[in-house]
Amino acid sequence: MKKRNLVIIFTAALAVISVACGTADIKENEPSEQTEEELITEGENTQCEVEFKPYTGENGSMFLSEGDRIAVISPSALPSREQTDAVIDGLKKWGYEPVEGKYVCVENRTIEDIIEDLKWALEDPDIKAVFCVRGGYGASEVADRLPDELIQESQKLIIGYSDITIYHSAWCVNGLPSIHSCMSGTFTGLPESCYEAEEKILKGEIPTYTCENSIYCKQGEAKGKLIGGNLSTFTTVLGTAYDCTKTDEPYILFLEEIGEDLQHIHRYLTILKHAGVLNNAAGIVFGEWTELPADLGDYYGKNRGGKFESISEMISRQFLRDLDIPVAFGFPAGHGDINYPLLMGEQAELKVADEEFTLTCGTD
Question: 363 FRET partner, CA 20 to 30 A, in 3, 27, 238, 261?
């Protein structure tokens, strides 16, 4: 379990906050108190090698070529002007023509405005893909009102992660692939290997990742559609019209999380367990657990066989004992500094051996 830098949390009796396009100035009327909270991260430093091969599946026309027009929108939370400009400038450097949506950075935009931007991006025949500026919260409200036929007929990739997990599930339900990857952060300091992998996957150069094993990995091999994303967000798709777990096809489940404590992670995984999502998976890949409270709170494991020493240990002890499937821990994707892209909604293959595991995206 990796320990992160200390984060200073400020509390104030009264604060006047003004927000403009995702930025804030805080004017304090009284002195604030300071408390320190120690945060931990797992999975970010997993050693990983990447190889690429051309995509050969039935959705080859959805991948991008130089000069393609890409819609730049934020169908989740409000981004800053700086985040939006970073995406626009970055896509230009990659040889594309970014087209900003009407309401991307409008402070008082409504759900109707966000839906209008997304509908435009999907309906405009000159737009080839949808690049999300940021995640946050709100995608489920949009997806609840998004017609299935609009997604099906668009034949367009949507690119992002975190709250964009909602759209990955919706795309999968409608038989389309999507790309789980960094958003504005791609162009503001993402490590070179991740940056290159994201640039390649947009063009249909599909990655195979070979990563070092965790002691909690379970050996075996599995094939199935790659689904999932952010754990807390993915849990909210259950029972919806865009629930990609409602399938008879085998799937490989990918999950990562940021900011939630051990107790909440246990709760979300328990929901997935009782819904049959874990039992029905052909294989599971756990990604990064990022900036979690070091204080394990009420659910610390002492009366469950001994204190949990890590998130991975808790998952292994509480959820995996009765699962006879391959399970990988520590895939370097999620909210950490390292975030490798994944091709969601397409066939993938997971091989977990003694010392390493391999995740191959976009298999035939």
Answer: 238
